[in-house]
Design goal:
Low-confidence stretches: none
Distance between the termini: 83 Å
Oligomer: single chain
Order of helices and strands: EEHHEEHH
Number of helices: 4
Number of strands: 4
Strand content: 5-15%
Helix content: 40-55%
Structural class: mainly alpha
Strand order of the largest sheet: 1-2
Mean pLDDT: 86
Largest sheet: 2 strands, antiparallel
């Protein structure tokens, strides 16, 4: 059984299910020129990924939804108001500065692991001790500061 299509071709009804879609519809002939775009340098990609990692781990989505203040304030025993950057005793809340600093510290720790990985490559040569020391220092600095923030945020935790 055949029928006449709108393009003047004869179509076999039995073969319609077996043939791919382009045998039924004509493929247009397009002569498009693609732009010649070179790939960006590796350092730019690493920088963009690190910045986006910092923003995501710092809680930028939370900040956009809940709109917390950038810093808080606490009144001391003398009645003076002091600024605070860490929202203590609240695990589900944060100030904007607190989130950005914690995201920065997570990024510093991640970059420390990247530098440690670079120390294991063959082309580093005698500079591997510099990479090893810098990577270890970044990781230790990030971990220590994050633990300090955690002790400020939740006093008495991990004791």
């Amino acid at each position: 059984v055949s029928t006449q299509s709108t393009w003047g071709r004869k179509l076999n009804i039995k073969g319609l299910m077996a043939n791919p879609l382009w045998s039924v519809f004509p493929i247009p002939i397009l002569r498009l020129k693609l732009p010649n775009i070179s790939s960006p340098p590796h350092w730019l990609i690493l920088l963009l990924l690190s910045c986006s990692y910092m923003l995501v781990t710092g809680g930028i989505v939370y900040d956009m939804i809940n709109e917390p203040p950038s810093i808080g304030s606490v009144q001391d025993e003398n009645g003076r108001v002091k600024p605070v950057t860490v929202m203590a005793h609240q695990i589900n809340g944060q100030y904007i500065i607190e989130g950005l600093v914690s995201g920065f510290l997570f990024t510093v720790g991640g970059i420390g692991f990247v530098v440690l990985n670079r120390a294991t490559e063959k082309d580093v040569g005698d500079r591997y001790l510099i990479f090893l020391g810098a990577g270890a220092a970044l990781c230790i600095l990030a971990y220590s500061t994050c633990m300090l923030f955690l002790k400020i945020k939740l006093p008495g935790y991990l004791e």
